[in-house]
Automatic annotation (TrEMBL):
Family: Belongs to the cycloisomerase 2 family.
Pfam families: Lactonase
Name by which UniProt lists this protein: 6-phosphogluconolactonase
Classification lineage: Bacteria, Pseudomonadati, Bacteroidota, Cytophagia, Cytophagales
Keyword Hydrolase: yes
Keywords from the UniProt entry: Carbohydrate metabolism, Glucose metabolism, Hydrolase, Signal
UniProt GO cellular component terms: cytosol
Length: 368
């Protein structure tokens, strides 16, 4: 009897182990492709092998460059080159069903995000230099815009800062404040938000944070603690570690280069910034230098470079780390493919694993 019990336990353990090894995570890829086959691509990442499989595509949006997934994982939102933002339902089988679209309320939308409550969505319009917010209705459809703001301002970089260029918007983990980067004026706009009422107002203690002139703030990431912000500056290829107080006020701590000081190749612009799921490391991508750089987050909020890799990286406009923290997926805009790196969650270092599937002009990776 005991032998049978032990055998049953061993078989069960083996089965669970095999199940764990075969576990797959779904992710979606946005593209800059405006052609007839322009699609959101659904993929699966095998956590045992690091292999990526292309599952299907949906082409209801034209050049659905940036996509965002709701906190409850039931909806996906995508901006498109025809100046729209679209809502999709994520079905139980992970397929996407188109729900509706709304005008982005500005030219050249480049980013969309969802409030932590799942009740609002935020769109940044790079070309038009404006920001808009939407209520998310029951079921995931988008309302008409409930807030719109046209930014103004310039910076010293005459070619890229000739006017406002809203690039990215996100709420903090507690949902009280929304931050919007304006690459054109070197500012991060700061709002108080009431997601239940669908209202935004400038944050009275700090309506905006001013960065270094000419830096060009592009994307940012907020630590789950809500006390730290890491601001990626596109034009001078730096990342600024910041603190955030209880009133949502941003203060710069220190700024770090994302590429070597002696780099002399093609003009470099930094692109994306992501946090490792364990909250210990920040990763950024560089176009021109064609690299991903890893920083360790120190106890005082400062950063320390942990690693930098370039193998098989070609214009990495976006990348992302899977929710388990095991793999880093690079979206190569220049070579139309995805590349996989292994990540060491203890040191933050990452090593090239393999080049993977072909996707035309991939510029966003979003894990379900």
């Amino acid at each position: 009897m005991m032998k049978r019990l032990i055998l049953s336990i061993l078989l069960l353990s083996a089965g669970l182990s095999a199940f764990a090894q075969e576990r797959k995570i779904t992710f979606y890829v946005g593209t800059q492709d405006k052609g007839a086959n322009s699609s959101i691509t659904r993929c699966e990442l095998n956590l045992a092998s690091g292999q990526i499989t292309l599952i299907d595509t949906i082409n209801k949006s034209v050049a659905p460059g940036y996509v965002a997934i709701s906190p409850d994982k039931r909806n996906l939102y995508a901006i498109s080159s025809d100046n729209k933002v679209s809502a999709y339902a994520i079905e139980p089988d992970r397929k996407l069903t188109f729900l509706n679209s709304q005008p982005s309320e500005g030219a050249g939308p480049c980013h969309v995000s969802v409030h932590p409550t799942g009740k609002m969505a935020f769109v940044s319009n790079y070309g038009g230099g404006s920001f808009s917010a939407y209520n998310i209705e029951t079921g995931g459809k988008l309302s008409a815009a409930v807030y719109k703001e046209q930014y103004t301002g310039t910076g010293p970089h005459t070619k890229r800062q000739e006017k406002a260029h809203a690039h990215f918007a996100t709420a903090g983990p507690d949902g009280k404040y929304v931050y919007v980067t304006d690459l054109g004026s070197d500012k991060v706009m700061n709002y108080s938000v009431d997601a239940n009422a669908g209202k935004l107002t400038p944050n009275a203690p700090q309506p905006s944070f001013s960065g270094k002139p000419g830096a060009g703030p592009r994307h940012l990431i907020i630590h789950p603690s809500g006390k730290r912000m890491f601001l990626l500056n596109e034009l001078d290829a730096t990342v600024t570690a910041c603190s955030i107080d209880k009133k949502g006020v941003i203060k710069a701590i220190k700024t770090y280069p994302t590429i070597p000081a002696d780099y002399s190749g093609p003009t470099n612009t930094s692109a994306a910034i992501h946090l490792h799921p364990n909250g210990k490391f920040v990763y950024v991508s560089n176009r021109g230098h064609n690299s991903i750089t890893a920083f360790r987050i120190l106890g005082n909020g400062e950063l320390e470079m942990a690693d930098q890799q370039t193998k098989s990286i070609a214009t990495p406009r976006d990348f992302n780390i899977d929710p388990t923290g095991k793999y880093l997926i690079v979206a190569n805009q220049a070579s139309d493919n995805l590349v996989v790196y292994d990540v060491d969650a203890e040191t933050g270092k990452f090593t090239f694993k393999h080049e993977s599937i072909a996707v035309k002009l991939p510029i966003c990776v979003a894990f379900l």
